[in-house]
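As the next step, I selected for study a record pairing a protein sequence with its backbone structure tokens, which the following lines show:
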Amino acid sequence: MKNETTMKRLDEQMRNRMTKQPLIEDLEMLNRAAEAMKRTQERAVQSEARAQSLVTHAQAELKITERLLQESDAARIEAENEQRKLVAKLEEAQKFLEARNEQVLEIQKEGEERCKAAEQRAQEAEDELQALREAMSALFKDETSAPAHKIAAE
């Protein structure tokens, strides 16, 4: 667009000068116009090269980003699977601990019952021992006093 405007302007200037000024000035103007067009074309080529470089760079970064995204997704999926496995192990461990706790409570209850039974048997044995002591004591008292009676009676 800029080139077209420049070209139109130069064209008008050339027409005006052809009638008014010598041919050398016209050639000089043509040379300047050619130089301007050459610089414009060089800038366009440079701009296109920069744009292509930017596109190439953006495409490379896009590929890297896509790869990172895929790796991230794979890591997330792996982490979710590992989490599910760990949750399953945790639930299994909880069930095992609950069952083990019930066993321990049952064993504790049985132990307490045995302890109470043992205490009761010990108390009964103590009572029987005490009764035996009392009976022996009474027996020995009778024997000790019996010979004195026997001696007196004889």
Notes: Residues 23-153 form the longest helix (131 residues). The chain has one domain: 2-153. The radius of gyration is 59 Å. Residues 2-153 form one domain.
